[in-house]
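Morning - 5-O-phosphono-beta-D-ribofuranose inputs below, output right after.
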Amino acid sequence: MKKIAVIMGSDSDLPVVGKAIDTVKKFGVECEAHVYSAHRTPIEAREFAVNAEKNGFGVIIAAAGMAAHLAGALAAATTLPVIGIPVKSAALDGLDALLSTVQMPPGIPVATVGIDGAVNAALLALEILAVGEPELAAKLKAKREADSRTVLEKDKKLNENIG
Ligand code: RP5
């Protein structure tokens, strides 16, 4: 099966990005993580994206905060699907990163999740890989069913408590 790459602009993004790595691993999919910055290490970031397809990756997740150009810069260098995670920072609560990540020009798409949406980024990456992987697709369906059961149990408990 193809691997998922998780690239973050700084190690300070790890508390958010760690949730994406954990989610990918829970599904038994191989994941490789790197710190590459669109601004501080543009050459290494581009090199990674240019070689990602031939290095066995199927999807790239890219997380960055502030003027978050990482996902877009990686997407510019590959036709692999790129999922952007805008990371919340102090000044603008993540709105800066959200707009920088989501507002891509036509021709270079980045599938942007919500601010700090690391779990959804991982699930979306897994869903993309699952198109050609029936076992992975079955695991994702089982998770959805388990999540539904949890909500219905909460509904039942709530109604027992309020009588
Ligand atoms: C972005 O700048 C990084 O993705 C991070 O969210 C933010 C701050 O980086 P550090 O100064 O903490 O390294 O490029």
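Note: The domain at 3-132 is CATH 3.40.50.1970 (Rossmann fold).

O.
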